[in-house]
Design brief:
328 residues, alpha/beta, DHBP synthase, Rossmann fold, 2 domains, four-stranded parallel β-sheet, 11 helices, 14 strands, disordered N terminus, binds threonylcarbamoyladenylate, binds magnesium ion
Length: 328
């Protein structure tokens, strides 16, 4: 085998070298990095060539725009118009953190990043290593979640290594993601603002600060303005079904249970993953994607998942479950 063939199939370096990761980004490379939500697959947002590699690595359709990640609030006006007074209000409370705002874009943001939309989605991540990386790169960083399009989101460096490790330049290890579900995406151009994707900042917390938030209409489900809202997304390879009541498993099938709390019985399940023994939604969110991944690796006939209470992070978790369960 030639050394060339070997190098293309090798997994990229994984580490915590911020200078190395920043240099790669500044020079047009693709670097996965940990954030508080999920791992991102980063590239210089102002370099269309680098961004097009992100789409290629993810096999992501070009109609699905990316989130631009910033190191600080001062950087915001370099990519977006900040005239809306809600922006400052929301930023003061939720940034840095798991909130993405959709704002009118500046002309220097390539169409590839925004899929030709007049708006750009931006957020300042809370994870200190992520912010240090963006600051050191000296560029706004476009980053979707670091998973192949439509599949389970990564919340650990080794999840990224498994799925995309041979196709990228570096994995900047930020440890396990604290929040565990993606950022909340909010469009502030509408009145009231519209929730495009439930996520790490709860609707309740948003409404405490800015008053009522509009939930997406069912028309938005068929013509999604945030393609993370496509009906099928975050999907395991194993068929997934949501259970509404405590039904026992079908004994003729090898089934795994993704349980919110400890189930009343483990009988008949091939495997059980408990997301939070105390029924804590924050803990459940932090464990969610990793537990789904472990069940998916067991080659079961199916995965059955409990739905979550429809409040707080439970909304984002139910959203991910419904899309993971959707088949077309
Ligand atoms: O937590 C997160 O948001 C993670 C980490 C890495 O920051 N990123 C993430 O990116 O989840 P991605 O690409 O998997 O999801 C981005 C979502 C998609 O639903 C996309 O359609 C929406 O943001 N989006 C991006 N730009 C938009 C725009 N201009 N208008 C409406 N939605 C937009
Ligand atoms: Mg994603």
């Amino acid at each position: 085998m030639s050394s060339n063939t070997e190098s293309t199939s090798a997994i990229c370096p994984v580490g915590t070298d911020v200078e190395r990761a920043a240099q790669l980004l500044a020079n047009g490379g693709v670097v996965a990095f940990g954030t508080e939500t999920v791992y991102g697959l980063g590239a210089d947002a102002l370099n269309p060539h680098a961004v097009s590699r992100v789409f290629a690595v993810k096999e992501r359709p070009k109609f699905d725009p990316l989130i631009v990640h910033l190191a600080d609030y001062e950087q915001l006006s370099t990519v977006a118009d900040v005239e809306n007074s809600l922006v400052e209000q929301l930023a003061a409370v939720f940034w840095p953190g798991p909130l993405t705002l959709v704002l009118p874009k500046k002309p220097n943001v390539p169409d590839l990043v925004t899929s030709g939309l007049p708006t750009v989605a931006v957020r300042i991540p809370e994870h200190p290593q992520a912010r240090a990386l963006i600051a050191a790169a000296g560029k706004p960083i476009a980053a979707p979640s670091a998973n192949p399009f439509g599949r389970i989101s990564p919340t650990r460096a080794d999840h990224v290594a498994e799925q995309l490790g041979t196709k990228i330049d570096y994995i900047f290890d930020g440890g396990p993601c604290r929040v565990g579900v993606e950022s909340t995406v909010l469009d502030v151009s509408t009145n009231p603002p519209t929730l495009l994707r439930p996520g790490g900042v709860t609707v309740e917390a948003l409404e405490d600060v800015i008053g009522p938030v509009a939930l997406p209409s069912s028309a938005a489900e068929t013509h999604p303005s945030a393609p993370g809202m496509l009906p099928s997304h975050y999907a395991p390879g194993t068929p997934l079904q949501i259970r509404e009541s405590v039904t026992p498993p079908d004994p003729s099938r090898k089934l795994g249970l993704l349980a919110f709390r400890e189930p009343s019985s483990r009988d008949g399940w091939s495997n059980v993953e408990v997301l939070s023994s105390t029924g804590d939604l924050v803990e459940a969110a932090a464990n969610f994607f990793a537990a789904l991944r472990r069940l998916d690796a067991l080659e079961l006939d199916g995965i059955v998942a409990d739905s979550f209470p429809s409040e707080g992070l439970g909304r984002a978790l139910n959203d991910r479950l419904q899309r993971a369960a959707h088949t077309e």
